[in-house]
Specification:
The protein is mostly helical and about 280 residues long. The chain has helices at about 5, 10-15, 20-35, 50-60, 95-110, 115-135, 145-160, 175-230, 240-250, 265-270. It has one domain (about 5-270). It contains ten helices and no strands. α3 packs parallel to α8 (about 175-230), α5 (about 95-110) crosses α8 (about 175-230) and α7 (about 145-160) packs across α8 (about 175-230). The longest helix is centred in the last third of the chain and has 58 residues, at about 175-230. It is elongated.
């Protein structure tokens, strides 16, 4: 039986964040808000569709209302389409395309998204998170009944080893074990979350730099493609790469990191493949 159904008060206590955990979450949310305000929005008068998309993706979302993106970002858009057409399919680029853009920037600029010391810091934090999550798995809800049964198995083993029944045998009932496991999960989850909070400043820095790279590439692609189209008196049909830049920004927008607050995520997952840990 699920321990949550037995005692709602105990369940609520073992799942609620501590005061320190709540404060840590608020601090991370403020960091995300600051990162959103600091996103680069250069003058892109030479790339109007890119500018329109960036303004839309950075705008705060409204519950139940989709954002109004320029139609050019969709794979099923084409310049001569019917005025009543409603394209809506995004291209689905692989992470290799993003890494190629990052590698190109690093090669031409001679810089790195994160310094070697910063990368080492993230790797150390990831190692702590991995260790904590491995320990957390030992106290999963699915293991409570096994722990309850193991008490009987251990008693049998001791009896066979000594040739007699041990004088004192203390047993925990299933509910007690379930509540003990829940308390340990709460403690370990908050520990993992605190490790991730350590990583947030560097994760946000990596996201900001990746966005700067992708936005610059997106604007450059639009400018070059429009020039080629104009030279042949043709309408501009965005390339797959230009549309991939839009998809990447929608996938990796810093606002999505708010969803990681309060959950047992990892620095590796939050980096979205920008950097491999």
């Amino acid at each position: 039986m699920n321990e949550r159904a037995k005692d709602p008060k105990v369940a609520a206590y073992t799942q609620a964040p501590s005061a320190a955990g709540t404060a840590g979450r608020q601090d991370v949310l403020e960091q995300v808000k600051h990162a959103l305000r600091a996103l680069s929005r250069p003058d892109l008068s030479y790339a109007p569709a890119t500018a329109e998309f960036i303004a839309a993706v950075d705008a705060p979302g409204e519950t139940g209302k989709p954002k109004k993106y320029p139609q050019e970002i969709y794979a099923d858009y084409f310049p001569e389409q019917n005025q009543f057409a409603r394209p809506g399919k995004l291209v689905q680029p692989t992470q290799k395309i993003l890494l190629a853009m990052v590698d190109e920037w690093q090669f031409t600029s001679g810089e790195k998204i994160l310094s070697d010391d910063e990368l080492a810091t993230l790797q150390a934090i990831q190692a702590k998170v991995d260790q904590t999550l491995a320990q957390l798995a030992e106290f999963a809800t699915t293991k409570t009944f096994g722990a309850f049964q193991n008490q009987s198995h251990e008693l049998v083993a001791k009896t066979l080893a000594s040739g007699a029944l041990p004088e004192e045998s203390q047993f925990e009932n299933h509910e007690t074990i379930a509540n003990r496991f829940a308390a340990k999960r709460r403690a370990l989850t908050e520990l993992s979350e605190s490790h991730c909070q350590e990583a947030f400043p560097l994760v946000l820095k990596a996201h900001a730099k990746a966005f700067e790279i992708v936005r610059s590439k997106m604007a450059l692609l639009e400018e070059q493609e429009r020039q080629i189209a104009k030279a042949f008196s043709a309408p501009w049909q965005p390339s797959y790469l230009w549309r991939a830049c839009a998809t990447f920004q929608m996938r990796m927008h810093p606002s999505r990191l708010t969803g990681a607050v309060g959950h047992a995520g990892t620095p590796r997952a939050m980096l979205e493949g920008i950097i491999t840990l």
